[in-house]
Structure formats: structure tokens, C-alpha cells
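Posted in: Structural Biology > Protein-Ligand Complexes

Title: Requesting predicted complex, zinc ion in pocket

I'd be grateful if someone could produce the C-alpha cells for the following input. Sequence and ligand are given below.
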Amino acid sequence: MSEQTGKQLSKEEKDARFEAELLPVLDPLYNFAYRLTLDEDDANDLVQETYLKAYRFFDYFEQGTNAKAWLFRILKNSFINEFRKKSKQPAKVDYSEVEGYYNSDDVEGEGGVATTTDMRTESVQDLIGDEVASALNALPVDFRTVIILCDLEGFTYEEMAKILDIPIGTVRSRLHRARNSLKEKLEKYAKSMGYNS
Amino acid sequence: MESKFTEAAHQKLSEDGHESECDKIAHLLDLMIDGEASTEEQSYFNTHIEECVPCFESHQKQKLLKGLVSGHLKRVIVPESLALSIKARIQETV
Ligand SMILES: [Zn+2]
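-- Reply #1 --
Done. Output follows.
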């Protein structure tokens, strides 16, 4: 593969630059992969595949541009194109079920604010960590993705639009629906714990 | 209970066809908590929630929800071997 254009970098130089610019993203990237696949081995494979692809296309990567968004985009594409099909995820979460339900596109009315549970501070303390994770994991992957990108990784809507190849308007509406479902799941939990309003 | 009552009243407004301020506010909620609202949107929003309890509460809830993910979702630890195997595989790539 000879994609050496313009300035000729030796392989050592290229590798060093690659590592310096892209390896710092490893932690968020692995976390993203894990939240998509819900499996450590799968996340591992997906991240490796992402870096290998990034290496192959590294000459097209403009130095100083958003390396994190670029890698997230590659990873998300790998996940969709190859990984999702062959992914072995029988026991964990039954996506088909949740997806079938949510794909009806209308989770709850626009601006529904159907928040009936009083999420008081004390109840919130108890919901932490594992509960947030299991509520999030129970969401369809598209919903999970926007929440991770926005709330965990702090990407802007514009960056998310690029990562996901969708218009900003779609980012906004998907995020809105994703949050409504997440809210619903967390409230169910809050209720089951007796934090009924 | 009180808040349920006001919420119902507040949704009724929009059914009447008033493009109510509260509807506009609802559309700005995510922009506000994500720091994506313009200066005008921000001041419009802030002025409204100063006097509208349901919208104020929705804003609090939305912030809370975002905070649950950003502040409480545990990060998984990257296996140490991963960076090494990436480097190794890159080095053997021509
Ligand atoms: Zn209002």
C-alpha cells in the first residue's frame, strides 16, 4: 500500500505521529466501544479494528483536526458495518424487543415532560452508577449512542452529526427521544425502590 | 401532586393552539443543558423559567438526568494489553 503523498514520512515517523495523536483517545474510544457492544472482548476487537483502519487512512487525517471525533466516527462505522452483524450478544440485552418498541418513533409526546416521579436528591444518590448503566444499556443502541456522545464525551451537536452522518436536526430529536426513554427507565427504577411521588 | 396539576394546565395551553411560550421552552431544554443555545435563546429561556414553575422544574429534571450520566456512569478500565497490541499490529503493518 503506497499512500505516501507529499512529505515523505518514514514508517517510524509516521508511527510515532500516529501514536502521539491518536492513542490518547484510547480510553474514551474503548469506553464507547464497550457501551455499544456491552462486552469487553468485543470492545477490544472493535477498538483494534478502529485503530488499524485509522492507520490505513492516516495520511488523509489532517494534523491538528479533531482526532477524537475522527476515531469515534470510524469506530461507529465499523460497529454498524461489520460488527453488529457478527456480534455475539445472546444473553445480555434483548435489543429486538426494545427496538421494536421504540422504533415506532414516538416514545412519548413531544416535550412530554411526563415526569411524574419526584426525583429527589436522596433518591438520586441511590440510583447512581449501576442503575444508570443498566437503564442506559436497556436503550436501543442508537439512543445509547447519542447519550454517550453528548453526556459522557461532551461532543457538540455538530461533532455528533459528523460522527453519526446525520443532520443536526436529527441529532437533536434523537437525543430528545433518547433522554425521554432514559428518564422513563430511571423513573421505573425509582418507583420500584419506593420513591414514588 | 401540586406539580401534576400545574403540568396539566400547562399542557392544555398548547392544545388550545396558543404556540405557548412553554412549548418553545420545551424545545430549548436540551439546547440549554447541552450548552448549544444561542445568547438570545438563553436569555429568553432564563427569563421564562424565572416565572414559570413547570418549566423551571423541567429544566431541573433535564439537568439532573444529564448529570446522572456525566457524573455517575462508571468508566470501564482499558485493558493494559490493548495499547500494546495496537502498537504491535501497527508496526507490522506496511
Ligand atoms: Zn413555562
